[in-house]
Structure formats: structure tokens, C-alpha cells
Design goal:
Distance between the termini: 68 Å
Helix content: under 10%
Strand content: 5-15%
Radius of gyration: 23 Å
Order of helices and strands: EEE
Number of strands: 3
Largest sheet: 3 strands, antiparallel
Length: 76
């Protein structure tokens, strides 16, 4: 296994003609759109169980059944 994982396409134009850049580890150049970009691995996310809040402190969205007009119930 190599020490460098190669991207399959440019995140800007989608072309597949990429070359490793001399700018360092994780840096790539796209010859189609002439852009340079860097990829890096940030780490693994901790598994979230039920009832835990997502990052940022916002409460997890509740999944409540949604009633649409004409679905059961009484019609005025």
C-alpha cells in the first residue's frame, strides 16, 4: 500500500488528469483547469448514539409524522 492516496478527479472541474504537486504532502494539480488543491485527512468521527446532539450544539432533528391534506382524519 502506498503512503499517498490519489484523488480520482478534480474537485473543481471533474477532470481526471491530476498530478502530484511539489508543494508537499496531499497537494495536487489539475492540468485541465490549472488549479492546485490540497487533500488532508482530519480524523475519524466519534459514533453518535440516539439522543446525542450533533456537532455545533444544535438539537438533533425530531422525526415526527407529517400529515398531508386528504390523508385520514376529518375533512371540513
Amino acid at each position: 500500500m502506498s503512503g499517498r492516496a490519489a484523488p480520482f478527479y478534480c474537485p473543481y472541474c471533474g477532470d481526471e488528469d491530476l498530478r502530484p504537486s511539489e508543494q508537499g504532502h496531499g497537494a495536487w494539480e489539475c492540468t485541465a483547469c490549472s488549479r492546485a488543491f490540497r487533500l488532508s485527512f482530519l480524523g475519524l468521527l466519534a459514533p453518535r448514539g440516539r439522543g446525542q446532539q450533533p456537532a455545533g450544539g444544535a438539537p438533533a432533528p425530531a422525526s415526527a409524522p407529517v400529515s398531508t391534506p386528504g390523508e385520514g382524519g376529518t375533512t371540513p
